Amino acid sequence: MKATQRLHDLGQSIWLDNITRDLLTSGTLKRYIDELSVTGLTSNPTIFDHAIKNSASYDAAIREKLKEEGKSGETLFFELALDDIIRAADLFRPIYDGTNGVDGRVSLEVSPLLAHDTASTLAAAKDLHTRAARPNLLIKIPGTKEGLPAIEEAIFAGVPINVTLLFSREDYVAAAEAYLRGIERRIAAGLNPDVGSVASVFISRWDAAVMDKMPDALRDRLGIAIAKRTYKASCALLSSPRWLRVYNAGGRPQRLLWASTGTKDPKASDVLYVKTLAAPLTVNTMPEDTLKAVADHGVLGAILPADGGDCEEVLAEFAKAGVDIDALATRLQDEGATSFVKSWNELMAVIASKSAALEKAA
After folding, report:
1. Is 140 one of the catalytic residues?
2. Which residue is catalytic, options 65, 71, 126, 140?
3. How far is CA 195 from CA 87, 93, 101, 133, in A?
4. For 158-192, what is each residue's pLDDT tens digit?
5. Burial environment of residue 351 by CB neighbours within 10 A (0 to 12, 13 to 18, 19 or more)
6. Of 17, 59, 251, 297, which residue is 20 to 30 A from 198 by alpha carbon distance?
7. pTM for the structure as a whole
8. CB within 8 A of 120, min separation 6: which ones?
């Protein structure tokens, strides 16, 4: 039995952290669903930038939208992205239906230029969800200070949300409480409290940030320690009286999602963040190469301990080595938001250059 199947049987969902038109048209995504236990998909500006820049598969659609609809820039991009996302959502729809909406989800992010604009983020989330018209679409909103109110309002409005760019236990708790407030408001208003959400905590960037600055004994241990600390907080939150009251009213838990699980250290196992982060009621969203590696030679470790295991001891060692965890978490979130803006700007440049070239060739 492949490790991907074992993870699924354990209760952890495997989502692919990639989308391209070629993945959809070649049948590769369908094969991953059928053979590698993939039950969902995530996307971001960097993924779409690479997909459109490195393929001619979008050229015909760009040409058509330019000629017949006069679309350009951001408007044109979201037309292309929604085409892909809707097709992927339909592939995962049987899983969504079969799990009563727990799994089978796909994610599309609002413009990262809105990361610090609450009102515009909320408006964009509602618009994209309405246009897609697929119940298994999650809209990605960053868990920044300005993003949290938009997350609460979106959940209250019934828009399923993937809270992204979370790095620490504190980031996760703030996102979980924003989600919970939205659900509690729905209950108070007599609305259905079953609105899906995941909270995406980024892992490998922690280790990349301190790589070669720590003693060998601490190499590639920071991200896992942060994950264990966050998982402990999640287990406590999801079993608290406040959450139990929500379950009693028909709500469901917001699942913890491990993001950025591709290994960045060439000296480490390519399945490091998969074999060590197995836990039920969680999601691991994997880059394509990581997914293939897990299926090929993945070996699972012990299930994550609900009490956090040795996380505090390990984090204390990093503190002794000069790592300020809180400051680094803030820096990583800021850098993540900046990185997505950079990818977004590059994506807009690719859209513009391709549009110009295709118009010239017409």
Report:
1. yes
2. 140
3. 22, 16, 9, 15
4. 999 999 999 999 999 999 999 999 999 999 999 99
5. buried
6. 297
7. 0.96
8. 114
